[in-house]
Amino acid sequence: MTGPDAEIEALMRQGLAGDRKAYGRALALLAPRMRAMASRDLPQTMAHMAEDVVQEALLSIHLKRGSWEPSRPLLPWVRVIVKHKAIDALRAGARRQHEPIEDHPQIGAPEVDPLEGLHIEQALARLAPRDAELVREHAVMGADAETLSARFDLSPGALRVALHRALRRLAEAARKDEEWRPTN
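^ thats the sequence. predicted structure below, dont judge the formating
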């Protein structure tokens, strides 16, 4: 394989080996292709959802990057992820109506930053120490699956399960915080 596909795959392999710049470049080169994939997957009436699909797919690729087998082509793996995210968007879109923000000029930017005061260490403090360290090493420090498997003495499958459960617990804690946060 030659051309852009080979370049993206080479950059992704370098990224998996720990090269953050190569990883960022791989994602940057993938994004336009993913937009085209999402646009093809969504009906014209839901074309506005393409960027959401791309963002969800990029997040999924980041979280599951260790599951891509570097001996196999990257683009089919990415294609499956985008396709699944488009299906998720179609399902969610059937439950909600789209109203372009342009139709509401009176809506301005929020006066308060909704993320103000959020700190990753505060969020991680809600987890058990091992879960917090696993999420910190993976999501914050960018450690690859091989490094994490060795550091935490886990098989690749057990690592994926442990990471998934830790992230789920973190999301549940964030939802509970949101439910209990007083409204003004």
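The first helix runs from residue 4 to 16.
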